[in-house]
Structure to design on (516 residues):
């Protein structure tokens, strides 16, 4: 079993992605032995009204509930976001949210961020935070969006022990509350696509620091290629049960399964 | 044969080179674990612009490593072109005495600065490639005001068609689509695929516009990203073999063919 906690469908304004639809995603999952995927709309990141992207997502994933786990993009500074949140959960059945605080100009720790975290947590939704969408060095001349600091997500997780955070496309967790035993009382998952499996071995260091239950597999496809995190899992020097936890058990636990 | 065209080590304990936080033995062992047969390495000074004493120390320490790992670690001679006489002398020492395989230029000078010309001419005479640090971002990179980009390397290649230039880390140098398009017209510019970025479509676009024969597999210490992006590329296995090692073997043979 393999669960990918970090995939997208849709489009990105600044370069063509190799594929765009749920059918494409399912084919890519089959090609890489991925059984289930958390999926959100790439288009919604830059849409002013993110709900339009969520609607596109749900139209695509409908009928694939056995394999695709939809996550909605919600911007807590936009009109009627609470109603969007209600619709996404009650009508579309999302299991979590994708938050883009730098793209949407808020902080996880300001009033807008706090309101969203509290509302989502009250609904039992996972809070997935991409620390970046693309490498900062290749950003367009139109946008200057820095990475979300891992410490900002860790601080939000520490302050909301009832929330389940899932930062993706990130690294540098060892120096934050995520890397300190007991500092974050709630459940959380750290997606491994940018964590080192060799040289500095951040994955191994995190396992030693906080246990293997907080690491989850994720690819970032179709922005990035799944072969890289798959290679990290392959070369990771850890017992098979630890690898199994990273492959799917931890993600399933975050889903409450 | 899998050859990492862009690698770094630290050398014996010293206060001159950049320390990467991992012992050299572990870097070499981890690369072996990933199936990398050989690595082309440079040592860089911690403080730049490098002085002659600084780049000589880097190269002397690297020569010790290449002697310990024959056929496993190959050396690039790192120099600061601003010290022209010392740099040219050092390149001769490194290639002719230490057995290094190329020259490494960092960001002390733009590659089109006249001070770089004698370095290029020396590399041509010795039939070795120059691995040149490069990147192109759509904003001012304040800490690297003299960083070259693919367009400048293509112009340098046009001025010196006998030179063999390697444009460093397309996966760690900003807008990779810009870089691939910029180097396309220069057949004597090779593209190093290294860097931490493993965006889908990057290697395929480079192969489409440049041809797989101009791509060189590299990691620049991002080992799983470096290898995984080649494994993922939608290219024929023959093209991947070229990228992973055969193209670099051909460049290394240029020097041997002179002997």
């Amino acid at each position: 079993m393999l669960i990918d906690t970090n995939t997208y469908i849709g489009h990105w304004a600044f370069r063509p992605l190799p594929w765009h639809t749920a059918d494409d995603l399912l084919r890519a999952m089959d090609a890489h032995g991925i059984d289930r995927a958390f999926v959100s709309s790439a288009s919604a990141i830059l849409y002013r009204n993110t709900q339009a992207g969520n609607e596109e997502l749900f139209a695509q994933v409908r009928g694939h509930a056995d394999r695709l786990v939809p996550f909605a993009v919600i911007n807590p500074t936009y009109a009627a976001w609470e109603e969007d949140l209600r619709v996404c959960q009650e009508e579309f059945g999302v299991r979590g949210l994708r938050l883009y605080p730098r793209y949407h100009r808020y902080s996880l720790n300001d009033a807008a961020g706090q309101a969203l975290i509290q509302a989502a947590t009250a609904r039992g939704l996972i809070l997935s935070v991409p620390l970046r969408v693309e490498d900062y060095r290749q950003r367009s001349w139109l946008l200057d969006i820095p990475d979300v600091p891992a410490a900002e997500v860790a601080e939000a997780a520490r302050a909301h022990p009832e929330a389940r955070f899932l930062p993706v496309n990130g690294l540098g967790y060892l120096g934050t509350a995520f890397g300190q035993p007991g500092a974050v009382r709630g459940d959380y998952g750290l997606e491994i696509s940018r964590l080192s499996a060799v040289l500095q071995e951040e994955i191994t260091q995190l396992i030693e620091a906080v246990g293997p239950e907080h690491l989850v597999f994720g690819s970032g496809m179709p922005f990035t290629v799944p072969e890289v995190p798959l290679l990290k899992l392959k070369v990771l020097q850890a017992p098979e049960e630890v690898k199994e936890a990273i492959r799917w058990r931890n993600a399933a636990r975050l889903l409450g399964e | 044969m899998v050859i990492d065209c862009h690698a770094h080590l630290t050398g014996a304990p010293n206060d001159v080179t950049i320390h990467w936080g991992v012992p050299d033995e572990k870097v070499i062992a981890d690369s072996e674990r990933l199936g990398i047969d050989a690595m082309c390495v440079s040592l860089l000074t911690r403080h730049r612009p490098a002085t002659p004493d600084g780049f000589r120390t880097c190269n002397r320490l690297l020569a010790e490593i290449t002697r310990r790992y024959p056929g496993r670690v190959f050396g690039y001679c790192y120099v600061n072109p601003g010290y022209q006489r010392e740099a040219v002398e050092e390149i001769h020492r490194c290639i002719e005495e230490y057995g290094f395989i190329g020259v490494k230029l960092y960001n002390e000078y733009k590659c089109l600065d006249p001070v770089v010309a004698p370095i290029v001419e020396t590399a041509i005479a010795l039939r070795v490639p120059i691995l040149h640090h490069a990147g192109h971002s759509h904003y001012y990179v304040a800490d690297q005001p003299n960083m070259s980009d693919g367009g400048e390397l293509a112009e340098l290649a046009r001025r010196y068609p006998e030179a063999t230039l390697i444009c460093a880390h397309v996966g760690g140098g900003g807008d990779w689509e810009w870089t691939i398009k910029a180097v396309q017209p220069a057949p004597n510019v090779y593209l190093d695929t290294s860097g931490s970025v493993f965006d889908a479509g990057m290697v395929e676009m480079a192969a489409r516009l440049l041809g797989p024969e101009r791509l060189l597999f590299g990691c620049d210490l991002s080992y799983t990203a470096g290898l995984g992006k080649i494994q993922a590329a939608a290219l024929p296995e023959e093209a991947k073999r070229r990228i992973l090692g055969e193209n670099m073997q051909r460049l290394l043979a240029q020097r041997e063919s002179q002997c």
Summary: The beta strands of chain A are 3-9, 36-41, 68-73, 96-98, 126-130, 164-168, 190-191, 215-216. Residues 240-254 of chain A form the longest helix (15 residues).
